[in-house]
Amino acid sequence: MTKFSKFILSLALVAITALLSSYFTYNGINTFYSNLSMPALTPPNFVFSIVWPILYALMIVSFYLILNENNNQSAVNLFSAQLILHILWTYVFFTLGYFMLGLLVLIMLVLNVLWMIKKFYGLNHLASYLQYPYLIWLLFATYLNIGIVYFNGYTLP
Length: 157
Prior knowledge:
Distance between the termini: 43 Å
Helix content: over 70%
Number of strands: 0
């Protein structure tokens, strides 16, 4: 696989994740989300539209760097798993409105990203470092999700 095709693969996987996540998030934002009681430090909605493109760009570059390393299959698998968990969280939380289940998925996502960062570090330090803003944002999202469960109750399927 050429470097260009590796970049296109990285771009495509993250773009698909971003599009699906945006679609699922849009469902919730336009229905129930604005009526929720929110925890302290909840940013205005426009902040999310600034932060996510930056995080997605960092993901693209980080994954591209990993694709160019040898013996990267477990790192590729962890990256792919975090994309799936990312999409799943937006679907469960924003489309289905299952806050507690969303929190459980989000915790799995955070743990996956921690494991992924460790695996990336063994292959390419910069690729690992580029994932830290995402991890920090996920930890903040976990705080928000916990607050939403606390203030609004939780639902389970």
